[in-house]
Amino acid sequence: MKRKTYIAISALAVIIVSVIMGGSFYMLGYSLDPDPNRRDIDSALQVLYGRAPFMKAWTDSVRGNGLLRDTFITSVDGRRMHAVYMRGDSACGRTAIVVHGYKDCHVTFLYIGRMYQERMGYNILLPDLNAHGLSDGESIQMGWKDRKDVIRWAEVAEEMFRDSTGKSQIVIHGVSMGAATTMCVSGENLPEYIKCFVEDCGYTSVWDEFRNELHDEFSLPSFPLMYTADMLCRMKYGWGFTEASPVSQVRKCRRPMMFIHGDKDTFVPTWMVYRLYEAKPGNKVLWVAPGTEHARACLDHPEEYAGRVGAFIASAVVSGQTSSASEK
């Protein structure tokens, strides 16, 4: 009898462990496997036009006239990384690096680039993150390892766009996962020419974001899948959900940062921006866009968005100072 009980318990334990590990592998693949159609730029353009129909004429014009150009670099570990760039008419060494969101690419946030190029006269550079768009890569990195690639793109932008006196002023502006990437960049030891950051609806950490999605999409608790998937991520990709923490990076940031979030965001819950804002020392600005869901602040409030971002950057870049302010 005892032997049968032992066998039954052991079999049940094996089944439970198998289910948990199977669920963990599924969760990791579901979250970090790239879109198999990520290189389909025509489809990405249709996504852009669906979000922002006003962008079609502009995009066709700048692409048709060769103003929006491709560039490729090789990362330190041998990956081929892609970006597009466009020169501003009166940039004078000022450049905005615009970082796209999760399973998007440079195309789908061209409207942010247009804002900088048209409204502010900036050069623009829009990279494809690892395993997105035309960049190489086997897995999505949720902004964590991407921070090193964006710093490399900033070096490229500084070389390409420095003014006649050899000076550059670079703003890094990211949306969603691109915002998380931007915040992860902000905590590093950076060159002087990176002046400030704009993060739009970024998450506090990968752990917090995945936990939120596990609950909202699958109605599952954090334990045990979050813990086993985190372990698998560390083993397979060399980073963990808690390690990939924009809020920890923001605590180390000593340059001006603007925080933007929609007050109706449930994909990256609005509460996250308050924690991020509180963690950031020194110069910072917060704008919570009314009635706005995830990654739609610029589309819902285009004039106010451009005005607020422009005012922040003018203060942060030109004078080197910006006051702390929180606005709804």
From TrEMBL:
<keyword id="KW-0812">Transmembrane</keyword>
<protein>
    <submittedName>
        <fullName>Alpha/beta hydrolase</fullName>
    </submittedName>
</protein>
<keyword id="KW-0378">Hydrolase</keyword>
<dbReference type="InterPro" id="IPR052920">
    <property type="entry name" value="DNA-binding_regulatory"/>
</dbReference>
<dbReference type="InterPro" id="IPR001375">
    <property type="entry name" value="Peptidase_S9_cat"/>
</dbReference>
<feature type="domain" description="Peptidase S9 prolyl oligopeptidase catalytic">
    <location>
        <begin position="141"/>
        <end position="279"/>
    </location>
</feature>
<keyword id="KW-1133">Transmembrane helix</keyword>
<feature type="transmembrane region" description="Helical">
    <location>
        <begin position="7"/>
        <end position="28"/>
    </location>
</feature>
<keyword id="KW-0472">Membrane</keyword>
<dbReference type="GO" id="GO:0016787">
    <property type="term" value="F:hydrolase activity"/>
</dbReference>
<dbReference type="InterPro" id="IPR029058">
    <property type="entry name" value="AB_hydrolase_fold"/>
</dbReference>
<dbReference type="Pfam" id="PF00326">
    <property type="entry name" value="Peptidase_S9"/>
</dbReference>
